[in-house]
Design brief:
By secondary structure, the protein is mainly beta. The chain has one domain: Nucleic acid-binding proteins (OB fold (Dihydrolipoamide Acetyltransferase, E2P), Beta Barrel). Helix content is about 5%, strand content about 40%. It has one helix spanning about 55-65, and strands at about 5-10, 15-20, 25-35, 45-55, 70-80, 90-100. Strands 1-3-4-6-5 form a five-stranded mixed β-barrel. It is globular. It starts with a strand and ends in a 37-residue tail after the last strand.
């Protein structure tokens, strides 16, 4: 089974391209923080290449932009091509099957997108009573 779920921040502004038979295509990268680090180490981040087609591409570009947090579901796909120096370059991309919002508050001053950080730093209340979502199982 090849199924991947990632949540990360979009690294660049999004631009939908039209490819092939008038199909929408979006290629972008998300930054995913690693959850665990060794004591004393700085947090590490992985940069994951993502690709979306058709309505997924159009809707992601409509609702998200650089710096916004996004939840993605899809599959990994590997490929390769010949680089400029003649050496084979191997790639791994996440092919997007579905996406979702992460619960960040919408910023009223922007036409689209979501606020990256609140203007005042507030510690979230993570007690069991404050969690307002259903578990997927």
């Amino acid at each position: 089974m090849n199924k991947v779920m990632l949540m990360g921040r979009i690294c660049k502004d999004l631009e939908v391209k039209i490819v092939g038979n008038q199909m929408s295509f979006l290629s972008f990268t998300i930054a995913v923080n690693r959850k665990f680090t060794k004591q004393g180490e700085e947090k590490k981040t992985d940069f994951i290449s993502c690709k979306a087609f058709s309505k997924n591409a159009e809707n992601i570009a409509k609702w998200f932009k650089k710096g916004r947090l996004i939840l993605l579901e899809g599959r990994l796909q590997t490929g390769s091509y010949d680089g400029n120096d003649g050496k084979k370059v191997y790639t791994t991309d996440m092919m997007i099957d579905d996406w979702d919002f992460t619960g960040e508050k919408k910023d009223e001053t922007q036409q689209r997108g979501y606020q990256v950080e609140p203007s005042v730093s507030v510690e979230p209340d993570l007690s069991v009573e404050s969690v307002d979502f259903e578990l997927p199982f």
